[in-house]
Amino acid sequence: MKGRDLAIDLGTSNTLVYAHGHGIVYDEPTVVALGSPKGDVLAVGRAAWELAGKTPADVVAARPLQRGVITDFDLTHQMVRLILRSIGAAGRWNKPRILVCVPSFLTPVERRAVQEAVTVAGGRSVALVDEPLAAAIGAGLPIQEPIGNMVVDVGGGTTEIAMVAMGGVVVTKAIKVGGFDMDDAIQEHLRGRHGIAIGDRAAERIKLHLGSAYPAADARALEVTGRELSSGMPKPVTVSPEEIREVLSEPIRIIVETTRDCLAESPPELSHDVLDTGLFLTGGGAMLRGLDMRMAQECEVPVHLTEQPLSTVVVGAGRLLDYLPDYGQAQVLSHRRLP
Ligand SMILES: Nc1ncnc2c1ncn2[C@@H]1O[C@H](COP(=O)(O)OP(=O)(O)OP(=O)(O)O)[C@@H](O)[C@H]1O
Ligand SMILES: [Mg+2]
């Protein structure tokens, strides 16, 4: 696969790589395993989780991005280097051109850091595309036309909401609320209400099994075992879907209200289009049970879940590889506004 153009969605939670002509060639958590005492990077992605889980004393798992922003430059470029190597795209003489998806709220300095990290990792020329634009393309929306297309991307660390029309982002809202905040709320609730401590991944499991944003008929109560805070001993407790819905209500309220604000602040003719065509929910958090119904009810527009919410952004960026060989244009495109 040497020399092929790549699109990368470097998410807080998951990293995906799309190779031109191949499709998605990498899809793993954005995690690195660090060995002590020097903090060498031992593995990335799923292998990093496994390694850190097996030998907890001397290997720790770290996330190089927080809330969509690179917080550890060295770890990021080492991680991307290993990813490129793992997919056979790290040729010394034949480096790939890379289009990286970034949150629209990144500052110029943060954008520069992404470009540099990916260049140091082995990219030949590195361009950026705003995630809402890539999401709209990945959702198959007619973004070049003078009609309003709305996308809501609920990720792990961020939620980005954008109105896209005529090839550009017209109104965008980003909040630092996503799936991780739902997991945190669950952890806090189990501490406060049931007196037990659970880990991040256990909290995510509870969210996937029981979480909802709208009363759902099918969810059943779940028995969860955590460490009792008072005794330090394992203790099972039963958690109900209604209870978890209540716990998730605050992050969900913020996501839904910000979506309403974005609709309200968009030019009326574009929000009117959304009344007909509906808004498109994407990102892993979009799969929370009932979020689509809740959005539809509160925003009073039809809501569609994209086909593969976890890969919509990278697929959209992958399509840009087809149509925009001149990467300079991708950047101009992402910032263009309606007159
Ligand atoms: N079925 C599901 N129900 C609810 N949440 C889910 C589901 N599947 C995945 N998620 C959540 O989606 C989040 C990851 O989504 P995604 O991969 O889109 O984020 P990301 O792109 O890495 O993050 P960001 O865009 O914030 O940088 C995680 O918080 C995960 O728990
Ligand atoms: Mg994302």
Write a structural description:
The protein is of the alpha+beta class. Helices cover 40% and strands 26% of the residues. It has twelve helices and 18 strands. The protein has a five-stranded mixed sheet, sandwiched between helices. It has a five-stranded mixed sheet with strand order 13-12-11-17-18, sandwiched between helices. The structure holds adenosine-5'-triphosphate and magnesium ion. The site of adenosine-5'-triphosphate has 22 residues, from helix 5 and helix 6. Magnesium ion (MG) binds at residues 11, 153, 155, 283, 313.
Strand content: 25-35%
CATH fold node name of the largest domain: Nucleotidyltransferase, domain 5
Structural class: alpha+beta
CATH level-1 class of the largest domain? Alpha Beta
Query: Radius of gyration in whole Å, from Cα?
Result: 21 Å
Question: From N to C, what is the helix and strand string?
Answer: EEEEEHEEEHEHEHEEEHEHEEHHHEHEHH
Q: At the fourth CATH level, what is the homologous superfamily of the largest domain?
A: ATPase, nucleotide binding domain
Overall 3D form: flat
The proportion of residues forming helix, as a percent range, comes to: 40-55%
* Overall mean confidence score, pLDDT: 91
Number of strands: 18
